Amino acid sequence: MLSIIICSANPDLLSEVSRNIDETVGIPYEIVAIDNRFNPKGICEVYNRGAARSKYDYLCFVHEDVKFATSNWGAKLVEALRRPEIGLVGIAGAAHKPRIMSGWGAEGLRERFVKINLVQHFKREQREPIHQYFNTEGESLAQVVVVDGVFLASRKSVILEIPFDEQVLRGFHGYDIDISLAIGEKYQVAVLLDIRLEHFSEGSLDAEWVANSWKVHEKWAHKLPKTVVPITKRERINCEKRTYRHIIRILKENGAYGLAWKVLHRGELMQLNKLTYLKMYYSYAKGYLGSFRRT
User: Fold this and answer.
1) Which of 136, 144, 250, 284 could form a Cys-Cys staple with 93, CB 3.0–4.6 A?
2) Could you tell me the pTM of the whole model?
3) Cα 169 from Cα 109, distance rounded (Å)
């Protein structure tokens, strides 16, 4: 009934998650694990290959460093995917995707726009795990624009119709936003809040993330921003502004600060509020010139 596709780079993690799936999934399933340790391929290519190999009608793409904390989660997932209007399901997502380059989260709009049921562990920091649960409307299945790639699920027919873009995205970042927007052109994208997942590593916002995120936003610039809930102009401004400040930090850490001007210019702050745009531009220019003075 459910094909679970895993891009694997660690046999021990694969063994652990396979055992956990067997104990919790609650329905007939198969695991399609693709060993990506040697001559590694991008995750889009791996996921497309896994979808082609799968024998069941429902597909779940999941990282191997996770643990399912909900019993019989497979039945809950299949019930959601049987709805013909639903094309993609995740366990974390946002109901607004700004035009500006960003991850899946809606910076500055967390309370009402983010839908998530995830326990996040930290391996690079000495921090306690955080159970992130945002569901202000008390929904079981919440419509969103984009979902996080730690867990993606769809019908096989949808993925064969709208595959992961392995031509544009050849690494391990950006695929979740891209497939969300692609499937969202024809179907609804949703977060299933009845499944709780534990994730044992943080995302890596490295140079590859920057490069692939930029590619995704170039590809979808003509379709963004996109939202599936009412949003005010002030909320859109706040999201763009907060997101830009977040992105600047990432660009600085990866030696790509020069890209910050393009990121700001491709957003919608100029159209929404010219004064705010100019303040962001001044902040960027000051930081850019300051970097020359320090060298």
Assistant:
1) 144
2) 0.94
3) 28
